C-alpha cells in the first residue's frame, strides 16, 4: 500500500482532485459526533426562559453569560429541583458551567425567599 498522495499504479493524487470532492470550507461531521456538536451550542434566551420558568431577566442574562449549553442548564435546573434524587442516582457533583449555572439559580432562589 502506497503512502502519501500516491495512488495505485504509480499515479499521484493532485490537490485539485481532492478539493473537487468537498467544498473547501465545508465541515464534515460524522453521525456519531452530530449529537455532541449540537450540544455545544450555548443556550439561547428563549430556551433558558422556557427551562427556568419564573426566572427574572438578570438571572437569564447571568445564565447565558456562562456559555452553558441547553443540556448544562437543564442539568443545573434538575439539581436545583431535587439534588437528593440526583445524588441517589449516583450522579457526580456538578462541575464547570453546570456548577456556575447552579450557583446562579440557587442565588436566584435565595433572593426570592428573602423578598417574601
Brief overview:
This protein has 116 residues and is mostly helical. Helices cover 60% and strands 0% of the residues.
Can you put this structure into words, describing what you see?
It is globular, with a radius of gyration of 23 Å. Helices cover 60% and strands 0% of the residues. The chain has 116 residues and is mostly helical. The protein starts with 14 loop residues before the first helix and ends with a helix. It has 7 helices and no strands. It has helices at 15-21, 31-38, 45-52, 57-65, 70-81, 83-88, 96-115. Helix 3 crosses helix 4 (57-65), helix 3 packs parallel to helix 5 and helix 5 crosses helix 7. The model is unreliable at 15-29 (pLDDT under 50).
Number of strand segments: 0
Radius of gyration: 23 Å
Low-confidence stretches: 15-29
Mean pLDDT across all residues, rounded?
A: 76
Query: Strand pairing plus helix content: what structural class?
Result: mainly alpha
* Biggest pleated sheet: none
Shape descriptor:
globular
Order of helices and strands: HHHHHHH
- What's the helix count? 7
Helicity level: 55-70%
Strand content: under 5%
The separation of the N and C termini measures: 75 Å
